[in-house]
User: What shape does this take?
Amino acid sequence: MKLEELEMRYVPRIEPLFSGPGWMALGAFALVTLVVLPLLYLLPAADSALHVSSYTITLAGKIMCYCIVAMAMNLIWGYTGILSLGHGVFFALGGYAFGMYLMRQIGREGQYQSDLPDFMVFLDWKAFPWFWTGSEHFLWSATLVILAPGLLALAFGYFAFRSRIKGVYFSIITQAMTFAFMLLFFRNDTGFGGNNGFTDFKRVLGFPITAPSTRAAIFAMTALALIGVVFLTRYLIRSKVGRVLTAIRDSESRLMFSGYNPLGYKLFVWTLSAVLCGIAGALYVPQVGIINPSEMSPANSIEIAVWVAVGGRGSLIGPLLGAAVVNGAKSFFTQTFPEYWLFFLGLLFILVTLFLPRGVIGLLSPARWRRT
Amino acid sequence: MNTISEEISVSGNTSGLSHVLQGGVDITHGPILYLDDITVSFDGFKALSKLTLTVEAGELRCVIGPNGAGKTTMMDVITGKTRPDEGSAYFGQTIDLARLTEPEIAHAGIGRKFQKPTVFENHTVFENLELAMKTDKRVWASLRARLSAEQLDRICKTLELIKLQGEAGRLAGLLSHGQKQWLEIGMLLMQEPRLLLLDEPVAGMTDEETERTAELFKSLAGERSVVVVEHDMEFIGSIASVVTVLHEGAVLAEGTMDAVKNDERVIEVYLGR
Assistant: This one.
């Protein structure tokens, strides 16, 4: 047989970035989150049936932040097979980095009318600690949002992956890491507001932070970030890097004997995942209005893994659904039957593990799992 | 269907880049692999005890031995998975295997097939070959990697060679045992190794497949060196020029199949006849 014929028959077609329905779903999502919801929030009168409340916008924005975290978790766990139980720390570091800027924006409008944030006045500090230098500049804080989680992940990952720490051992030390950071941030002397963290924000880039137009803008930016992460993940997974990552998950030793050094790939995807979490954290803080060390509690990081497991790890859309469904259920339960939420979460996790190993997405489309 | 040897020579003759990458194995003095006085112990148990073995460039060597003789440990030492406690292992004249990691050794030109066929089960047959192909395997190169026409040709030729052209788009996990063995051999060939280490390559194959495999290995020798660990005596008889018998981590006998078969000590410990 001629080679050309062979290629015609056997070489897989290069897959499009998204299928037709995929593009349509993305477009619909962009339309709703970038145009429809912000307009319904800003334009109709508060008593109109069409009006979307501040509560709804904030909740939806918060859930989109969680969706970004779930996508980031999926990169490292779903595709690469490395379970992190410490992703909360990257989320919180991004939040703190941006929170520093928001604290500086309060200016002299705090309780004590000082240039320093209230908690520093309370501690009788006279000047900002060195690591607050430059935090009044938006661009530097935005850089820190990426640098802080990125550098921590890079250093932690380098030593862990170089020592070939794998599986449950890796999960345990990530859990220990987030716990250690939580204890560190609880201390008042650390310089991040102790157990109260940062709150009472007034402005962002000079705009009042609770004004509907500001909220709508941050909401739309979160949606854009989420869409960007979907594109990035899809691009990455379709590239040869994506195939190497799933090969690490499925048979790391075969990959090494094929001449790949997994260290570089693991570090790359681990650091990328941490940075995405940091960005999600930075978008989360101005919407929720508070960041404190409880975001670093081990349970929070475990919950991230639950979202991904529920949605379906190793699929593009599954983790997104998982984060949305679990957090939607959470806000419903904590309002109506607050005492039953944790039981429900535990039950959900058990049921999904037993009956839906591919998560919710496995129910909808078995084919999607197969290819990724 | 072209003959196997023709296809091999085509697939072996690739772009200039791969020759540069492959360079550095100095075989001017003949041998491609030197193992000298290698000792490996696990908790006091000596898996290898002063093993000395030399493989000539282009040779097809078979290694046999009873269970626990140290065959797989020897492969682990050569591929960098296990570090020897004593002794030295050289690839060509100059490459000290004890100082390289597994991926570095693979890059230097040693390919390994595992005892249990090990392929990427959630990837298609085509993707398995693509991943194994000799190229720059660092992250940034992989991010931008696009298959060139030449690389596509190589993958297609290997697909034909391992008779999996009809399965190119199937997941490797869905292949039969024998097909997985062939796919793994195909992956090794895509790496363009100078030395192939094959751990029980015909286990689970039908007689016809075994015969074809023997033919393939014989055609590989010459350009590449091949070390086969196998239990199937008939298979070894059909391919080997020199057979090495391992026992308790050291070489017990070495020679042609006939000479080894008639060696008293070999009969005692291994053949048991």
